[in-house]
Design brief:
The chain is α/β, with parallel strands linked by helices. About 35% of the residues lie in helices and about 10% in strands. It has 8 helices and 8 strands, in the order ααβαβββααββαβαβα. β1 (about 45-50), α3 (about 60-70) and β2 form a beta-alpha-beta unit.
């Protein structure tokens, strides 16, 4: 999970004594749906799953997990920050109660805008209070949706930007965007998987993956690899723990300060991928000579 989930849960654990269970992933980067009901308790209030990992790109089996949750009467939420805009989501078929998403990733919106899609019958306690623009005489914050979870003046520019992004995504087609990204990701994986000194994580089988590509170069900290990619090759990447420390703990990369992540997007080209392959190969070769 991302810190956007981990940190609120930790605060609930620390401040209110809420029990939190974490289900690990396997060597390929997937959680086992059958492990979820084994963790269910009489006091289980919520199951939340990162639909697509922002670190290793794996798409989790949410339909199967959702079926277990629905059978047990436990609300099921997904973090769709990395999947909304490239992977179809069907709340009814996949037994999802809550979808949290951000606008600035695959939905092509600006930063500072996101949303929460809540199934009818699910009640989320508001944690703040403020202006709503309607029913101003009411002394307490409004209980009905969407006002229950909206505070202050809405980000109108962000909403407009998100609308434009969603329209572009729908025009291109989710399947087309995802197919393009995975074609390039496979090219990247095939170009680097046998390079001496390059370590790939959860990239052996790209089925049920997004275009997230995680790697390290032996003998180099991720930060230094990223700096060379930036300064010497004009390639943007993200290094470190990617706001998901538990993933790196399980991968064994937390102790070496994380890994390097390439994010393949709809505007990348085959030329971009070849440039990235060449750059990583050259950095790995220079490291072997030391």
């Amino acid at each position: 999970e991302h810190n956007s989930v981990l940190r609120p849960l930790y605060h609930l654990y620390r401040d209110k004594g809420v029990e939190v269970d974490h289900i690990p992933f396997d060597s390929r980067g997937f959680v086992d749906p059958d492990e979820f009901p084994k963790r269910f308790k009489k006091n289980t209030k919520l199951v939340i799953v990162n639909h697509a990992s922002n670190v290793i790109g794996t798409i989790q089996p949410i339909a199967e997990i959702g079926a277990y949750c629905r059978e047990a009467g436990i609300p099921f939420a997904i973090d769709a920050s990395q999947s909304a805009g490239k992977i179809p989501i069907d709340m009814e078929k996949q037994n999802i109660d809550i979808v949290a998403f951000t606008g600035h990733k695959s939905l092509m919106g600006p930063t500072g805008i996101g949303g929460l899609y809540v199934r009818e019958g699910i009640h989320i306690r508001h944690t703040r209070a403020g202006g709503t623009g309607v029913r101003s005489a009411v002394r307490t914050h409004l209980e009905e949706y969407p006002y229950r979870l909206e505070y202050g003046t809405i980000n109108t520019l962000g909403v407009a930007g998100l609308k434009a992004g969603v329209e572009w995504v729908l025009e291109q087609g989710l399947e087309n965007i995802h197919a393009h990204e995975m074609k390039l990701t496979k090219m990247l994986r095939d170009g680097l998987q046998d390079v001496e000194g390059v370590v790939l994580y959860c990239q052996e089988d790209l089925t049920n993956h997004t275009g997230i590509f995680l790697f390290n170069i032996e003998g180099l900290e991720a930060m230094h690899t990223g700096t060379m990619l930036d300064v010497d090759y004009n390639i943007a990447c993200r290094t470190g723990l990617h706001c998901a420390p538990l993933v790196h703990e399980q991968l064994g990369t937390a102790k070496i300060h994380g890994a390097v992540r390439f994010g393949v997007g709809p505007f990348n080209t085959e030329e971009d991928i070849q440039t990235a392959i060449r750059a990583v190969k050259e950095i790995a070769a220079s490291q072997r000579k030391k």
